[in-house]
Every structure is written in structure tokens, then in C-alpha cells.
From TrEMBL:
<dbReference type="InterPro" id="IPR001842">
    <property type="entry name" value="Peptidase_M36"/>
</dbReference>
<keyword id="KW-0862">Zinc</keyword>
<dbReference type="InterPro" id="IPR027268">
    <property type="entry name" value="Peptidase_M4/M1_CTD_sf"/>
</dbReference>
<keyword id="KW-0378">Hydrolase</keyword>
<feature type="domain" description="FTP">
    <location>
        <begin position="68"/>
        <end position="102"/>
    </location>
</feature>
<dbReference type="Pfam" id="PF07504">
    <property type="entry name" value="FTP"/>
</dbReference>
<dbReference type="InterPro" id="IPR050728">
    <property type="entry name" value="Zinc_Metalloprotease_M4"/>
</dbReference>
<keyword id="KW-0482">Metalloprotease</keyword>
<dbReference type="GO" id="GO:0006508">
    <property type="term" value="P:proteolysis"/>
</dbReference>
<dbReference type="Pfam" id="PF02128">
    <property type="entry name" value="Peptidase_M36"/>
</dbReference>
<keyword id="KW-0645">Protease</keyword>
<feature type="signal peptide">
    <location>
        <begin position="1"/>
        <end position="17"/>
    </location>
</feature>
<protein>
    <submittedName>
        <fullName>M36 family metallopeptidase</fullName>
    </submittedName>
</protein>
<dbReference type="GO" id="GO:0005615">
    <property type="term" value="C:extracellular space"/>
</dbReference>
<keyword id="KW-0732">Signal</keyword>
<dbReference type="GO" id="GO:0008270">
    <property type="term" value="F:zinc ion binding"/>
</dbReference>
<keyword id="KW-0479">Metal-binding</keyword>
Length: 495
């Protein structure tokens, strides 16, 4: 959207403004007349026709200090959605400001004679927002108009639906005729809350295991000292830990009317806050890299509902479960983000990891996501190439303890063990070395882009080739030589 700003200093004589007196408030018609005159005289500056035939007057808002005359861009008598012009007129009858997002259309596409039905458009809108059913809490709204994209005025239907799951109001723009989605927008006004979490885990932030012990979820001064205040984004305002991207389900039924979620680890609600914050943060990170079509629904995380020392993603239920054996898994951001890694891959390639090597790639990608997330939060060498330092105090005596490492120097195929977690260390090291070489953001972009090229039965070789090609797509192949070197060291060809 381009905003054209202009200050009009030419005084327009008004019958009601006598010399030596403060001008009275303009009438609505006079303010509009002044705005119309100015836009006609300066039409070329705003890419308008001099007769203003592509604008339709909407409203004039009158305040003690100025009038604000608003116009809607139209084609025929139909709106060009969201595109408007606002003219600010002072009490003295001067145009002080024009803000315009008018988009000229070089060509207006013909309205198709054959249209999908109103019911089909509603179904298509629900499908595009990822609704699990068509249960609603408000009426569906449909309106015909245009979107201007690249100089083309495209006839569309603006369809607003109110979904229960995911909860909220959603705006979609469907091309007239075939109903293809051209744009969508979340209309919900999300709330923010606050809470306390480990960021990413107490071993990382304390830079030591000394004095840190689970003791069946008991609090301690050493552990309490590692709690960090955070902002919880995207909450639906209900008081539950339910939001734009994450829905927490737990026995604790965590609730706060004030959206303040401050707990210590001996309270089960602490793990709920941990899971919400870290899952929401990593999803927003992915979207910030440009992958807004990945994990763009709401994922459910089951916390404190599974007593084993294990966590998992269910590709059938499309949800996450975090176990409470040993150190509760949802107390460690590395574990939380690792499990989300499986959801990300399944979201990009349904059924991913059907082969043994594909399963190892899934575990390696999860470890990569967890380790680089931890690195970004601590930004020092303690815990580097190690994931889930706090959770692993229950079963590792290392310093720091690690669930797995990303620098084992395993080589394919000599070091294959036929177990996906162990073999995943081959894959995770290659991904992690890309992050060290190119930076986390660039490496993650390449990796996520590569997933689109894979199948459920993909192999290490397929994955490495896809990474090489993704670099070509995203960066013109500028990282190709280093990518070849990294994967050759793991025994995997990119050719």
C-alpha cells in the first residue's frame, strides 16, 4: 500500500468565515466540496481520474479541529476492498493532508458468467482457514467487489466466517467464478498476557547443573532464580491458554481472568505456560521467515496428561503430548520445540518419515530446531550442539547433560544403527553446521523450503538434494559450495 501525503496551503474562501473571526465548523457538504475540488485539481498526483469516477464518497467525520472526508475506491458501483482515500480539511477550509491507498487498475477482468454457489463459497472459506467443521458463532457475510493486484482488477467475493475451531472471525477473498483463494486475514483482535518460564531451560541459563535437581517437581531457590518474565501473545482473551496458534489442554485447566500466568514449577500450570509460550514463539518465528502457510492453524498441546518419560506428535490427531516422567518434558524448551518439529514436517509433507531414513531426518530436524532455538536464547557456547539439557538431567551425567548432540561426527552409511534417534544425529549435524555457516535464519529458510520437495519415503540423499535446490530457489545457489562440503562430510551427496 502506497500512502501519498500532501499538505494543501491554499485558503478557500468560506461564506461562514468572516475576517478577524475564528472560522466556524464546516458543514459536511462544504467539507466534501473542498475535498472534491482538491482531489480533482491534484488527480494526477494520486493516479485518479479527474472526474473522480473511481471514488465513491463514504463519510465525513467532523471534529472540533478538522473534518475527515473518506472515499472508497470503486469499479462501477462495486468496492475495491480495503482501498480508500481520506482528505483532512482544517477549520479554516484548507486541505492539510491526503492519505491514499488507491490502486489504479490497468485492466478490469470480466466477471465470469458461471459462479460457484453462495454455499460453496462458504464451504471454501471454512476450508481455507483450516476449520475442523462448520460450527459457527456468528453469521457468514458475503460481498462482491474487486481486488487490484499487479494492475489487474480481479472480481472477488469477500467472505467472512465465524469459526468455533479455530475460534474467531476470518476474512477470505475468493475469486469470482472458481472460488480460488486470493487472500485471507484473521479479523480477531488477540489479547496479550504475561507469565514466567524457563528461557530455554534452567541448566542453560544457570550455565551449570549445580544445585539443579528435579526432586519430583519441587521448587528450590536455584530453580526459581531461572524463571524469566515473558509476554504471551495471541491469546483469545477467554482467560485460558488458548490462542491464535496454540491451545493448551491439561488436567490443571489453567485459567487467569487477568491473563497473568505466574507460577513456579511445583505447580502443574507452569508446564502449561511453558508449552504455550515456546510453541507460539517458534511458530511466529517460522512465519516471520516468510513461511506463513506452515503451521497457520491452531495446534493442541496436551500437558500433564501422560505419565511416561516421553513426548510425541500424533500425525492422526495432529496434536502434541508432553510426558511427566523424570523432569516434566514441558519444562524444557528444547523438548517442546523438538516435538513441534515433527508437526512442522507433517504439516508440509503429510505422512513424512515413512522410511527409516525419513524418520531419522524427522528426529534430526527436531533436534536442529530445538538446539538452534536454545542457542538463540542464550547466545553463548554453553550447551552449544546440545539439546534439552534440563530434561536430560534425569538420564545423562554429561556436563552439560544432553538428550542428543549435534556434533557427533557420524558418517553415512558407516554409522547407521537402524534407530531413528541415533541415526538422526547424522542429519542434525548437517543442518546444525548450516546454521553455523549461514546463520540460523538463512539455514532454517533453506531447510523449510526443502521440505516441500520431499515425499513420505524420502531418504538422506533426497533430503540433501532438496536442500541444495532450495538454496537455488531462495538465494540463487549462493550457498551451494558450502552445502556440498557440509553434506559430503556426513557422507551424503547433494547431486
Amino acid at each position: 500500500m502506497v500512502a501519498f501525503l500532501s499538505v494543501f496551503m491554499l485558503s478557500i474562501p468560506l461564506a461562514m468565515a468572516e475576517p478577524g473571526h475564528q472560522p466556524e465548523m464546516l458543514t459536511v457538504s462544504v467539507a466534501k466540496q473542498i475535498a472534491d475540488q482538491y482531489l480533482k485539481e491534484h488527480a494526477s498526483s494520486y493516479h485518479l481520474k479527474s472526474d473522480l469516477s473511481e471514488l465513491k464518497y463514504s463519510t465525513t467525520i467532523t471534529t472540533p479541529l478538522a473534518d475527515y472526508v473518506r472515499y472508497q475506491q470503486v469499479i462501477g458501483n462495486h468496492p475495491v476492498f480495503t482501498n480508500q482515500v481520506v482528505v483532512t480539511v482544517s477549520r479554516a477550509g484548507k486541505v492539510q493532508l491526503v492519505v491514499s491507498d488507491f490502486k489504479p487498475a490497468r485492466e478490469v477482468q470480466k466477471i465470469p458468467s458461471k459462479q460457484i454457489s453462495q454455499e460453496e463459497r462458504t464451504d471454501r472459506a471454512f476450508e481455507q482457514i483450516g476449520a475442523k467443521d462448520k460450527e459457527t458463532w456468528g453469521p457468514t457475510k458475503q460481498e462482491f467487489g474487486y481486488l487490484v493486484q499487479d494492475g489487474q482488477a480481479i472480481p472477488v467475493y469477500r467472505v467472512v466466517v465465524h469459526s468455533v475451531n479455530p475460534f474467531g472471525a476470518w476474512e477470505t477473498y475468493l475469486r469470482a467464478g472458481d472460488g480460488k483463494l486470493l487472500a485471507k486475514r484473521d479479523l480477531n483482535r488477540h489479547a496479550t498476557g504475561s507469565g514466567k518460564v524457563f528461557l530455554p531451560n534452567p541448566v542453560e541459563t544457570a550455565r551449570s547443573v549445580s544445585g539443579l535437581s528435579d526432586r519430583n517437581d519441587a521448587d528450590s531457590p536455584a530453580l526459581d532464580a531461572q524463571l524469566k518474565p515473558v509476554i504471551l501473545q495471541g491469546l483469545d482473551g477467554s482467560g485460558n491458554l488458548k490462542g491464535q496458534f496454540v491451545n493448551i489442554q491439561s488436567r490443571s485447566k489453567t485459567f487467569s481472568q487477568t491473563l497473568t500466568f505466574n507460577y513456579t514449577r511445583n505447580q502443574n500450570s507452569f508446564e502449561d505456560v511453558m508449552a504455550y509460550y515456546h510453541l507460539d514463539t517458534i511458530i511466529r518465528y517460522i512465519h516471520g521467515l516468510g513461511f506463513t502457510n506452515v503451521m497457520n492453524g491452531t495446534i493442541t498441546a496436551n500437558v500433564d496428561t501422560y505419565k511416561e518419560d516421553n513426548s510425541f506428535y500424533s500425525p492422526t490427531k495432529k496434536d502434541l503430548t508432553f510426558g511427566t516422567g523424570g523432569v516434566d518434558d514441558a519444562e524444557d524448551a528444547g523438548v517442546i520445540v523438538h516435538e513441534l518439529g515433527h508437526a512442522i514436517q507433517d504439516n508440509q509433507v503429510p505422512g513424512f518419515g515413512n522410511s527409516e531414513e525419513g524418520g531419522a531426518m524427522g528426529e534430526g530436524f527436531g533436534d536442529y530446531m530445538g538446539a538452534t532455538y536454545e542457542d538463540a536464547l542464550t547466545q553463548d557456547d554453553f550447551g552449544k550442539a546440545c539439546v534439552a539439557e534440563w530434561d536430560s538431567t534425569a538420564y545423562s551425567s554429561g556436563n552439560p547433560p544432553c538428550l542428543r548432540r549435534l556434533d557427533t561426527n557420524k558418517v553415512y552409511p558407516d554409522d547407521l544403527q537402524g534407530e531413528v534417534h541415533a541415526d538422526g544425529e547424522i542429519w542434525s549435524q548437517g543442518l546444525y553446521e548450516m546454521a553455523q555457516a549461514f546463520g540460523r535464519d538463512v539455514a532454517t529458510k533453506i531447510i523449510l523450503q526443502s521440505h516441500w520437495s520431499l515425499t513420505p519415503n524420502a531418504t538422506f540423499h533426497d533430503g540433501a538434494k532438496a536442500i541444495k535446490q532450495a538454496d537455488v530457489i531462495l538465494f540463487g545457489g549462493m550457498h551451494g559450495a558450502k552445502i556440498d562440503q557440509i553434506w559430503a562430510a556426513r557422507g551424503i551427496s547433494t547431486q
